């Protein structure tokens, strides 16, 4: 087939007709290029649907307008496609990467990831980028001929944004010269993958401001006083619309910030690519540095904003209070399932890699399913007594609770001994510098 975008692609863009292919060979679709097909498989996956009930910063039940992992992924895809079109990169590929990049996130956001990584510290650890790859390579069960979604190399490459050297070597052993190679060799992914990395950063900075102000944990006055970049756009908005106030003022300020970042990436990237004369996506991969980038002033401004959000939103006392309890839920679930794996569906408890099976199962849960399971298992007598739990004596690792949620389906639970509870400020904790899905639809 002829790719719809082929005539408009830059020579260094990814071309589906030149793809490195799928792990299991498949015939080309008659009406869709391979990157479109990847995007469609992602959208129809169970893991993608679960993102609507997974925490971004604020729990889903706290308000209908707070972002979830799903709405975040959609915003990343919109920004990435806008930039890709201006740079003559492949829009379908950036959309596929953007929609899949968070499939491996645990319930309760980064707090859940931190807790699950702690539980798995002796069993290879847990990292959501690697888990997203497990989702699309193994955990989804939709097709007769293969596990996972059997996506193209280019989409899988973009999903794996971060990878430690040890994990990269493990990947390379299973798939020589594959996804792990660039982390070993210090080379780069496609321009489409690089673009999605920046689109992710642009999106979460903007919507975390919006959600932070909406929650009452941040104020425009606080942002203006501490983030010169935000103040610049606030003043610019006020100059354009002297009578503006309230949420319109915030929205227009964020809109200007988004636009300026998008234009900055496009202009900086174009200027950087022009003198290189790159003629293929392979030449992009062999380059030692990322080629899609902010200008230096924009990068500094973005970093300052991230530091402010980390100190004042992700580490807000009201956020951290409930973050601690979310971590305890994950730890309790891990111990319960390792102790009695038959509490999981058969496709998990029959596996020989018990701890990894438990991590896969937990990572695939939505926030509310994790809360319901925690409530159910907290009342189960063997676990309540702590029998056979090797780590049960550690502080914060037991499953006994003096109070229990009378309505587990709400996603609310009583807190640990301090009596804290999920309130309107639940957050995912600080964003790291730098997964999960389940087999079947149980969670």
Count of helical stretches: 20
The overall pLDDT, averaged over residues, is: 84
**Number of E strands:** 0
> Helix- and strand-based class?
mainly alpha
Give the termini distance in whole angstroms. Answer: 39 Å
Largest sheet: none
Uncertain segments are: 386-443
Write down the secondary-structure element order: HHHHHHHHHHHHHHHHHHHH
Portion of residues in helices?
40-55%
Query: What is the CA-based Rg, rounded?
Result: 22 Å
Overview of the molecule:
The longest helix has 28 residues, at 246-273. Helix 3 packs across helix 10, helix 4 crosses helix 7 (153-159) and helix 5 crosses helix 16. The chain has a domain at 191-314. 54% of the residues lie in helices and 0% in strands. The protein has helices spanning 34-43, 46-50, 69-87, 91-100, 109-119, 128-139, 153-159, 165-174, 181-185, 191-215, 220-226, 228-240, 246-273, 281-285, 296-314, 317-339, 346-349, 354-363, 367-378, 381-384. It has 20 helices and no strands. It is mostly helical and 443 residues long.
Features:
single chain; 443 residues; mainly alpha; 20 helices; disordered C terminus
Explain the layout of strands and helices.
Elements: H1 34-43, H2 46-50, H3 69-87, H4 91-100, H5 109-119, H6 128-139, H7 153-159, H8 165-174, H9 181-185, H10 191-215, H11 220-226, H12 228-240, H13 246-273, H14 281-285, H15 296-314, H16 317-339, H17 346-349, H18 354-363, H19 367-378, H20 381-384
Helix pairs in contact: 1-4, 3-4, 3-10, 3-13, 4-7, 4-10, 5-16, 7-10, 10-13, 10-15, 11-12, 12-13, 16-18, 16-19
């Amino acid at each position: 087939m002829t790719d719809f975008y082929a005539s408009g692609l830059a020579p260094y863009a990814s071309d589906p007709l030149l793809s490195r292919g799928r792990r299991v060979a498949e015939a080309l679709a008659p009406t869709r290029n391979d990157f479109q097909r990847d995007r469609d498989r992602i959208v129809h996956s169970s893991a993608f649907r679960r993102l609507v009930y997974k925490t971004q910063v604020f729990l889903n039940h706290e308000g209908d307008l707070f972002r979830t992992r799903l709405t975040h992924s959609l915003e990343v895809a919109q920004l990435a496609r806008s930039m890709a079109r201006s740079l003559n990169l492949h829009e379908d590929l950036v959309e596929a990467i953007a929609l899949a990049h968070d499939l491996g996130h645990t319930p309760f956001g980064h707090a859940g990831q931190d807790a699950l990584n702690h539980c798995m510290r002796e069993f290879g650890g847990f990292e959501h980028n690697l888990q997203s790859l497990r989702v699309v390579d193994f955990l989804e069960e939709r097709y007769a001929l293969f596990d996972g979604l059997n996506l193209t190399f280019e989409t899988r490459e973009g999903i794996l944004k971060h990878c430690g050297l040890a994990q990269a070597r493990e990947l390379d052993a299973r798939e020589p010269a594959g996804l792990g190679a660039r982390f070993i060799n210090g080379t780069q992914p496609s321009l489409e993958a690089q673009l999605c990395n920046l689109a992710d950063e642009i999106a979460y900075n903007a919507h975390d401001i919006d959600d932070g102000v909406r929650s009452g944990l941040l104020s425009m006055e606080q942002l203006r006083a501490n983030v010169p970049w935000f103040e610049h756009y606030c003043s610019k908005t006020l100059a354009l619309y002297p009578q503006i106030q309230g949420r319109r003022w915030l929205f227009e300020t964020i809109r200007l910030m988004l636009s300026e970042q998008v234009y900055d990436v496009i202009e900086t990237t174009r200027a950087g690519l022009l003198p290189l004369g790159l003629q293929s996506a392979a030449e992009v991969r062999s380059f030692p540095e990322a080629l899609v980038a902010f200008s230096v002033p924009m990068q500094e401004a973005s970093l300052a904003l991230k530091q402010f959000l980390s100190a004042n939103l992700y580490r807000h006392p009201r956020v951290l209070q409930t973050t601690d309890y979310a971590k305890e839920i994950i730890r309790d679930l891990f111990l319960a399932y390792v102790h009695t794996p038959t509490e999981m569906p058969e496709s998990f408890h029959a596996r020989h890699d018990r701890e990894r099976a438990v991590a896969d199962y937990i990572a695939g849960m939505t926030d509310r399913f994790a809360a319901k399971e925690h409530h159910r298992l907290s009342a189960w007598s063997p676990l309540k007594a702590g029998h056979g739990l090797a780590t049960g004596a550690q502080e914060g690792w037991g499953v006994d609770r003096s109070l229990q949620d009378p309505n587990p389906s709400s996603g609310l639970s009583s807190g640990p001994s301090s009596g804290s509870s999920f309130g309107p400020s639940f957050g995912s904790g600080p964003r790291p510098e730098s997964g999960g899905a389940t087999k079947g639809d149980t969670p």
